[in-house]
Amino acid sequence: GFGGRILDKGEPKYLNSPETPLFHKGRELYGLYRARDAIRRANRVMVVEGYMDVVALAQYKIDYAVATLGTATTRDHLERLFRHAPEVVFCFDGDRAGREAAWRALENTMEVLHDGLQASFLFLPDGEDPDTLVRKEGKDTFEARLNQATPLTDFLLQTLGAKVDLRRMDGRARLVELARPLVEKLQPGVLRTMIIAKLGDLAQLGVDKLEATLKAPPGAPMPERSVVRTFGAPKEPPSLMRRTVTLLLQYPKLATRALADVDIFSELAGAEVFIAVLKVAKEYPNSTTGTILENFRDSEHQAIVEKLAFLPDPATERDLETEFDDLLAKLCVEARGLKIKWLSQKQNPTPDDKNELTRLLTEKTKTPNSPQMD
């Protein structure tokens, strides 16, 4: 195959042979054949964007550099590179195009990275490329820059963190959702655990909770039996309200089935927590358990919400919507009975009280177990 770069101004800047059974730009790396021994000695390989960068660096005895053939760094490239050295340093221009190229390289690197391998990113000053910079600074200063390259983990979290407002709970929740598809690419191991721990620090979410959140599909309820952290289940059967809140926390999409007017529950024990959780779940339609927990961090309900969110669920197969509807219906009956008892015992009922009592008794007779749903 042939690859070339124009030496003067003009287009195209790079020109390659067409793809053939032997020549695939997505697999080939300029300079790799000659750089193999130097890569082994340096124990790392540098990836640059152009042929002439490889040539210029070699002139200054930095001979462990390779270049892609005018394409993004692919998974095939990375698998080849990591067979030669445990560390890959990507060297890109510091402009927008360079950072976009770096991000594409990061996405592909996440798929092949595992414990024992390293990847870093060196962004050059504005207007500079490896060719011009090594001529200005020389080998030692250029390699000093390489030694200070940004680790993949830092580049990942800095880039994602810049896209959200980490001072806000919904911003931290958004950070987790942005990181999810990238973390999913990582193979299980110490590196993945450490990245999740750093992500948890930024999101202000415990590692166990974050792991459980990342395992759930975007906007989906928490998967059953995927939670690492456990709490002792109550010895006695849970109350109706406790069971309702637990289901709502673990499967937030059930909020769409709740009553339009939840004030009917306000006098029931535990209703304050239920109403608060329901409000958050409705405000964020695609919320996960982790999203809701973030909204209760440092609140008066944090302890009980965390406990219920991670209660082991004994049921393995059931119709969640039917069960939730049934719980709401029973809560309505309980709330209605409490209101009837209170109105019946009131010593000086007003006309409105009497009308309300009549309405509730009639409702009880007609629909004793069915709430009016949205």
Number of strands: 8
Q: What percentage of residues falls in helices of 4 or more residues?
A: 40-55%
Beta-strand fraction estimate: 5-15%
Q: Residue ranges: pLDDT <50 for 5 or more in a row?
A: 220-237, 368-374
Compressed to H and E, one letter per element, the order equals: EEEHEHEHEHEHEHHHHHHHHHH
Instruction: Give the overall average pLDDT.
Output: 81
Straight-line distance between termini? 66 Å
Write down the Rg: 30 Å
Q: What characteristic shape results from the CA principal axes?
A: rod-shaped
Structural class by helix and strand composition: alpha/beta
- Output the number of helix runs: 15
* Largest sheet descriptor: 6 strands, mixed
For the biggest β-sheet, the strand order reads 3-5-4-6-7-8
Description:
The protein is α/β, with parallel strands linked by helices and 374 residues long. The protein is rod-shaped. Strand 6 (87-93), helix 4 and strand 7 (118-124) form a beta-alpha-beta unit. The longest helix is centred in the C-terminal third of the chain and has 25 residues, at 320-344. The chain has 15 helices and 8 strands.
Topology:
Layout lengths: L2 E3 L8 E3 L12 E2 L1 H11 L2 E4 L2 H9 L5 E4 L6 H10 L2 E7 L2 H17 L5 E7 L5 H18 L2 E2 H10 L7 H15 L6 H14 L3 H9 L24 H11 L20 H13 L5 H7 L6 H8 L10 H25 L6 H16 L8
Parallel strand pairs: 4-5, 4-6, 6-7
Antiparallel strand pairs: 1-2, 3-5, 7-8
Helix pairs in contact: 2-5, 7-8, 7-12, 10-11, 10-14, 14-15
